[in-house]
User: What shape does this take?
Amino acid sequence: MILKSKIYICLIVWPILLGSNYCSRFEWGNPCDPNGKEYLGSLFLKGILGDSSPYCGVQYGSGAPTQVKVVGGLNKTTISWQNVPGASSYKIYWKTSAGVTRSDSSIGNASSPYVHSDLAGGLSVYYRVVSVGAALEGALSEEVNTVTGASFSNFQNADIVIGQPDFVTKINSPVTAANLNYPGPITVSGNKLYISDSRNHRILGYHQIPTTNGAPADFVIGQPDFVSSGLANPPTATSFSSPWSIASSNERLFVADTSNNRQLIYNSLPTANVNADVVLGVSNFTTAGNGTCSSTDLSSSEGVSTANGKLFVADEGNHRVLIWNTIPTSHYTPADVVIGQPDFTSCTANRGGPTPTANTLATPGGVWGDGTRLFVADSYNGRLLIWNTIPTTNGQPADLVLGQSSMESAVSAATGGGFSLGGVYNIFSNGTQLVVGDGNNNRVLIWDSFPTVNGQSADKVLGQSNFTNNVGNDDSQTGVSGANPTARTLANPYGVYMVGNQLFVDDYDNHRILIFKGK
Assistant: This one.
């Protein structure tokens, strides 16, 4: 039997050795548990207690590195921090899930900034940093995390197709668990995949992301079974009319029920055709909205996103984006902030002006937020607007524009930095890369790092071999549309989404979802 007692010892260490004072606690009979503890180590213990001592030293006095930041890149990250006075070097602890401790993988003799390279693409990585002086570690810093970018190549073949049995088939009937009819964007929550099957007025659900072509769905929402595609008139709590964007967060599912002029919220992720819990845009589940311009009504709202407890809705027909600062829990809840318009009762395209500006919108079809930034696909202005912070005041102007050279420009282009007018409907960012579906140019554009200047050119393109070709299903790249799609062609791709190194593309006119795997 090992006796347990505690001895508390304060050691004043010469500044020449450590540069600070340490107060350490030693417990008799306990092996050293490194998780979250700061070692004093055996430098003094060996002289006091001998090499075989079972004591564990826990240092409480050393400072942790501050201002720790991490930025993702292609197959790498860059970690930086504020140096600690007196430190001779630094050690970085890391792993691919939250809760980094000293028992995880480590990188020694590091200095700021440190580039952590040769990582897999689409990898979530978490870090904590400690200072080292005279072989003694300081306190663990706060934890930071990012996602590595996944590397894609121009005109890359897709790896998996959903909605079709193979890459060259293009059918949208009959209605089955494996077919799609003009699908919209997708969302993934945990292992569950949800696909907006727009013209079948339903959402197809998968318990796992498919790994084989043509995999049938596991469940359906919006229809009573896999072979039904009818419209409910009037609508119900279990029906859709041309649903478009869908989003998920914290076990909730959000559906843009576009033709019913409403947004539906499920408070738990549905795996069957259950009732929605909350409706926005109308006061009840059995009324279709009339498109009124107000803080509570919606008009053909196509986009929905959520982050950090906020809800963002692209209210297309009213040429605006609405923001709820908390997720609504009751029907017909008014929005808190509007952008694209000066107030909740103004709803004209570009605020009635002849050209766009930094605070106007024209038929915005998509919205996406990461909790810090807000992205809006301003479709009929042929551009993507970016707010570097979530707007908190009505009519707040955007900070950055992509697809156009300036905030006042609205021209169609098939270039590395241009979009087609009327075809930009969906965007996604994993925090490192930015992906945009440039529908009418029949391509998807990828920025491998976050854009910093107006009109910045994309780095990669899918669906075409270069940034100037823009014909749908043009596998030979001759400017002539092919009769059938291939694994690398697209026809009006609107929706985009990323999970790890997998990029999902809603290939609308080919009635399919493609999955491209990055490296």
